[in-house]
Specification:
Elements lengths: L7 H13 L2 H13 L3 H23 L7 H9 L1 H34 L5 H18 L1 H26 L16 H16 L18 H34 L3 H6 L3 E2 L3 E2 L2 H30 L9 H14 L4 H38 L3
């Protein structure tokens, strides 16, 4: 099984990538469609709700710090019920990777590589994912750490270049549609950015424990959340709530507005590069969670032998999980409930079971 260990600093960086992930492009559109000019408020409320969720997931992982969620299920719920819950999580991890691959394929083939077949894009991405997980968690973490300065610099440069295009008038009227649309829009932020951190329940046992592990993790959550909220705010300020709500890739449209002295233009590829980087690391961590979880479920010695067959499954599943963008926009609301179930519903159930069986479980065998 995986023997790689990562530092708390690397954990924080992976958390930032994971929270931003694919949401860098599509979250502003989802929140603007729900709450219009109040999308920035939705992002802020979602952050305030998502922070405790992220904290709960970390504290939950400390019950048995050396066990993953798959091992939790069997230890707390027994072989059969725990096995069913484990299969549910494994399917969740696998489906999430497939959706991320499909999102990348849709974006790249409609915005950048318009004459490239989607299956070619999927194949390249899956090869990179399989290569990543076969290299091990330490390699993934070190690569993430190496790319992070460039990622941060590109992210910051986009904000600086877009400031001249921002207009505060586009945020008015505040709460013009009432509080309910704003609350509805906040669900996208707190679930897609924070609830999906439940995949890290497969990663926490591999983190080198220290006195500031929780602090570094929560700092990663904070900076990732601030990046997402800032992206939503800037999108609404630059292109307005109407355009933000009708364009699936609203952030990409926003980046196209960069124009400094009619010289610095059409640098939206910077945003695309950042999105690909964060989406890749989110995808590779979800794939890692699936492979390690599957290996533990079937009691295999090494998960790497499963990587290539799983890549083939993802290649096919990416085309069937959502046939087109229109379908994706319709079902995305239902995915919220799946995220909440995996991040809060099941862990809280397990925690309640732990409280009832605490004395028995902690008794040395």
């Amino acid at each position: 099984m995986e023997n790689g260990r990562i530092s708390t600093k690397q954990l924080a960086i992976l958390v930032i990538y994971f929270i931003i992930g694919d949401m860098l492009l599509i979250l502003p559109s989802l929140t603007a469609a729900a709450s219009k000019q109040d999308a920035w408020l939705s992002g802020g409320i979602g952050f305030l709700i998502g922070w405790p969720i992220a904290w709960f997931l970390f504290r939950f992982s400390r019950i048995f710090p050396n066990l993953t969620i798959i091992e939790y299920n069997r230890r707390l719920l027994g072989k059969w019920i725990g096995g069913i819950i484990s299969i549910f999580y494994l399917y969740y991890f696998l489906t999430t990777v497939s959706i991320l691959i499909r999102e990348a394929g849709d974006f790249l083939t409609t915005q950048i590589f318009t004459n490239t077949p989607m299956n070619a894009i999927h194949l390249i991405l899956i090869i990179l994912l399989v290569w990543g997980v076969k290299s091990g968690l330490e390699t993934i973490a070190r690569t993430a750490e190496t790319f992070f300065p460039l990622y941060f610099l590109l992210f910051l440069s986009l904000f600086i270049l877009l400031i001249p295009q921002a207009q505060l008038i586009r945020l008015q009227p505040i709460l013009g549609g009432g509080i309910l649309p704003t609350i509805r829009g906040s669900f996208y932020t707190c679930t897609f950015s924070f609830c999906e951190l439940c995949s890290l329940l497969m990663l926490f046992p591999r983190v080198i424990s220290s006195n500031h592990t929780e602090r570094d993790y929560l700092l990663g959550v904070f900076f990732g959340g601030m990046a997402i909220c800032s992206t939503i705010l800037l999108t609404v300020l630059v292109i307005g709530p109407n355009l933000a709500s009708i364009h699936l890739y609203a952030t990409y449209i926003t980046a196209q507005k960069i124009n400094i002295g009619n010289f610095v233009q059409r640098v939206e590829a910077i945003l695309a590069l950042n999105w690909i980087i964060s989406t890749y690391f989110k995808s590779v961590l979800d794939l890692y969670a699936f492979l390690v979880g599957t290996a533990q479920f079937f009691k295999l010695r090494d998960y790497r032998s499963l990587s290539v067959p799983t890549g083939m499954i993802i290649f096919g599943l990416a085309f069937t999980v959502t046939p087109n963008v229109v379908y994706f926009n319709k079902v995305v609301d239902y995915y919220i409930f799946w995220d909440v179930t995996c991040a809060l519903g099941i862990p809280m159930l397990l925690y309640i079971v732990y409280l009832f069986r605490k004395n028995k479980l902690l008794t040395p065998r």
